[in-house]
């Protein structure tokens, strides 16, 4: 690779900014809302648009694979025998746009205001996919692609990717690659390039407590039975000790310890106590003893009630002992925790702590593996160098508190790690009204991707 | 009083069983549902029926007093200077009848099946009021009333008697009496005559916890904030210690101790552990250490969650940290606890235990004083002897776990105690479909009331 080739691709991207923005606007006008059956035709339309883009880039084997719900778009280019193969992930579906009345401009009429383009899916993640297309286009149209690429673009991410794992499992040869690139994570801020190297997993439960056969009169029977709502509260309260540590038996046994080097790297991230206070609006933070807020939100496991209901919750008063009480409880997991093992721990906790005067039932709703990637392999170094070239500073290495399940799925089924990046910003309003994409960051992102692909060349 | 006079009144009641039943059927056909504005005319109709009954008994000053909602019926007979005056309480309103499809016969078409008459209000408490009318009638039509009587019949009991205390406070002279008789409590079983001498009070709260400004993503923010639902659970759990004792500061300070004699009297009541297990359907009872189930349900204070809600409670999973959580919590109180003082104790508990990382708000919804009466004054002895004459056994003296707020109101405003009885049975389905009244017990009740009034004669 020569500096000329790099410069030619970058120049191409710079010259075509308007054309690239037009392409983005095209796909943003398609309301590919995956949750709503009424949008099935739009989903199909978006898949076809994606496939057309891949064909336009000279991809081969471009195909729209049907699934039980929304199709998967595939395409590949494998022109260089001894170069690595990157599997680029994307999803072309979007969240619903409602509440519509809170949008300043219509969600599927992309509108540029100031430095940003406003539309549903602009940041999450049509903008990210178009950035990968446009970086590849710049290379193809100048010196040619320096690596082999495959694309896996799904239409069900916003509904939990119900058919993705099956598709990957049954197309392992087609999807074989050296590593995956997932641009569905974002940056800490527009000036702070970010690489996400770990994601938390999830174990989600519904805990149902029952006691009396029916709601009881709290006067007649108050004092002789264990109130299921009180019992549920007691069980939940017992799931954490006074130091904020989770008491499910063995919960921390397989939690990977944070080393000094990693903690120093995480400490560079400028999201301190003040940041979290502002973002959440709570009067004070509650963190695990011995860990920074940043470590607690990404590198430590949690236990949270997501919902809880029992008895009479309307206006006024009703003097009953409720027959039942229910809580949805979920744990965010970190490497090397296993959601199935955490399910067994929860069950053991209940067996050991639930009193004999109530009945309980635990439903294990769904789980997802946590994941962590090497911060020092060749693809990560290539991406890190690309970000540093464009932003002029070494990227932050971040552990994301949420989940991107496909990363774990690919680790498991394809035995590949993912480089996780993307050019969305925390204030992009994804999943909310007035979703936007910051265009200067997006243009920089396309340049960074050009560097990334070139840096991967053997 | 001679035995002849007693016998004549009893004979009159026995001869008029059918006529008495017809009168009961008349009032049971009037759907005087106080909760539903659509029934306002029926309420009025029922009040007029009651007033007509009083006039038929030769009562004076019979009057229907309007209130802000449903009227109060009054009548009196004060023919004997040196005899005591009994204020007889009643309510002519009833609970709604729904769910209608669970009734075997229509709720306002009273139907005799077997030994019982089925209709809404049969047991609670039109049947009880008609029993008092028919006992007085038997006396009036034979040797004359041996005591002075006043009647206070309200139409708002099933909606919490919002206007009763004001009416009593502003009619103290009219209502002046030596004691009150309240037949709105029942018997332990048809063979077990019962006098209720104590009622629990109530302090009802809504506790609202808030934390984040909005629901938060449990992945992104899990680990740095105190989840309001978890915090609520922890606060509720802390309201009782491992021995089941309530931890609100000073909660037991003014609880009147149970003496040996009273505990022995309570121990006669045949409602043991098996009774409560069958009635509630719980797998095991939970009682306060050192007290029998019977004592726990009537003579000891409680703390129960009546309802609780937070976050996402629909089907499936949603990974949020809820912004708020709410619980309705109420304490049943025993003499000499004070609901206002218990409100202060709850507030103190929260001040001492709520962490600084959440916000809380306590709404004191409503309260009611507990009450306890002498078990050995003249009116109680008169009623006890009457029950023993009819049933052939000394009555049980019971502490009722629920509340009959009018008892405390009369204690407070009129400085009188109530004799609390009535001839409803635990399986009468009051407040439920297929409410019934056991007629043999009802006829016995009328006879017992005849004895009661005669026993009161100086």
* Alpha plus pi helix count of chain A: 15
CA-to-CA gap between the ends of chain A? 9 Å
Amount of helix of chain A: 25-40%
Radius of gyration of chain A: 24 Å
Q: Quaternary arrangement of the chains shown? A: homodimer
Q: Tell me the total number of β-strands of chain A.
A: 18
Average pLDDT confidence of chain A is 95
Give the largest interface pair and sizes.
A-B, 81 and 81 residues
In CATH, the topology of the largest domain in chain A is named: Aminopeptidase
Specify the structural class of chain A: alpha+beta
Question: What would CATH call the architecture of the largest domain in chain A?
Answer: 3-Layer(aba) Sandwich
- Low-confidence segments of chain A: none
Q: Main sheet of chain A: which strands, in order across?
A: 1-2-6-3-7-17
Number of domains of chain A: 2
Beta content of chain A comes to: 15-25%
Using the alpha-carbon principal axes, give the shape of chain A.
Answer: globular
- CATH homologous superfamily assignment of the largest domain in chain A: Zn peptidases
- By CATH reckoning, the class of the largest domain in chain A would read Alpha Beta
Task: Describe the structure in brief.
The structure is a homodimer of 458-residue chains. Chain A has 458 residues and is an alpha+beta fold.
Can you put this structure into words, describing what you see?
Two copies of one chain form a homodimer. Chain A has two domains: about 280 residues, Zn peptidases (Aminopeptidase, 3-Layer(aba) Sandwich), CATH 3.40.630.10; about 120 residues, Alpha-Beta Plaits, CATH 3.30.70. Chain A has about 450 residues and is of the alpha+beta class. The model of chain A has no long low-confidence stretch (mean pLDDT about 95). In chain A, α1 packs across α4, α4 packs across α15 and α13 crosses α15. The N and C termini of chain A lie close together (about 10 Å). Chain A contains 15 helices and 18 strands. In chain A, about 35% of the residues lie in helices and about 20% in strands. In chain A, a hairpin with a 2-residue loop joins β4 and β5. The first copy, chain A, has a six-stranded mixed sheet with strand order 1-2-6-3-7-17, with helices on both faces. At the A-B interface, β10, α7, α8, α10 and α11 of A face β10, α7, α9, α10 and β11 of B.
